[in-house]
Amino acid sequence: MTEFRVLVVDDDFHVARLHGDYVSRVQGFTALDSVGSAEAALRAVPALRPDLVLIDIFLPDRSGLDLLPQLDVDCMVLSAARDAESVHKARRRGALAYLIKPFDPETLSTKLRQYARYRKLLESNGSLDQELVERALRQLSGGDSPKKPRSVTEQEIRAALERASGQHRTALEVAQEIGISRATAQRYLSVLVEEGAVSVSLRYGTTGRPEHHYRFSG
Q1: 113 lies in the same domain as 165
Q2: Which ranges of the chain have pLDDT less than 50?
Q3: What integer pLDDT is reported at residue 210 of this predicted model?
Q4: 165 Ramachandran zone, left/alpha/beta (phi>0; psi -120 to 50)
Q5: Exposed, middle or buried: residue 196 (CB in 10 Å: 0-12, 13-18, 19+)?
Q6: What residue numbers bound the domain in which 61 lies?
């Protein structure tokens, strides 16, 4: 399982430690030692190589918004700033999310899980198509919508992939195992891939045509 390394940039030591604790509670994420200034962040990013930076705007030596374009890494802004211009500028300069302080642990947890699904989709296949890119981008803002109840068919498909014990299965193999059409299996598998519950890879079969192979991600 991929472990995402997260760097918190906040000059308030207690807040930085609190947010680091929030991060460490989320499965698949590890909080690195936090830093408290823009200059420290510029040194830490190339040295520690985090996957994600959680950055405050009000830093002692420079605005976090001015720092964003200089960090060649995924970033989310965590700030008490509530004005529209700060939000707009953060997004314009590449922030994947904007969280207003104070927030509860679940708010950050949701954003981190969305980020994990976004990364998983982008990295599930070496060659991306437009549909997969759109699915990945939707993950960054998809955590606020209520989840629909799982249908019996979807539960059976998930169970079939779990029984495969980490082995990849095609949509046809899944369909034959639980007694549904390939098209139906493909439709449900696409949804599970979008949610990040299932990973997909492209492989060439005996006919020379590429096939999608699916594996349960947990």
Answers
A1: no
A2: 143-146
A3: 74
A4: left
A5: buried
A6: 4-122
